[in-house]
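Handout, page 2. Input:
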Amino acid sequence: QVHLVESGGGLVQPGGSLRLSCAVSGSAVNDYIMAWYRQAPGKVRELVADIINGGHSNIRDSVKGRFTISTDSATNTVSLHMDRLQPEDTAVYLCNAKKSYFSANNYWGQGTQVTVSS
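Output:
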């Protein structure tokens, strides 16, 4: 069983930066496809970025150039570094782990709130 715990959310002004972290327990972070999703009120959950076994990453077009995803095997964490945040980035950000894109087993964290507002 994989357990995910997110941290690092908060209130930030437009143009600011935040770094979200997701601590992974029960398995090695680079054994999984690790992803960050977000869900804003009244909107569907959307994939923000993922990283495949600690290597290749995919970034959503709307945040490309502003967000970066990475893993750290020493701390067994996956991070999402967010720069030049905009109000439309406001959402609950959730960490996700799965063995493959076709896996029926998806693990989720509880989420962390990011609010971008002046």
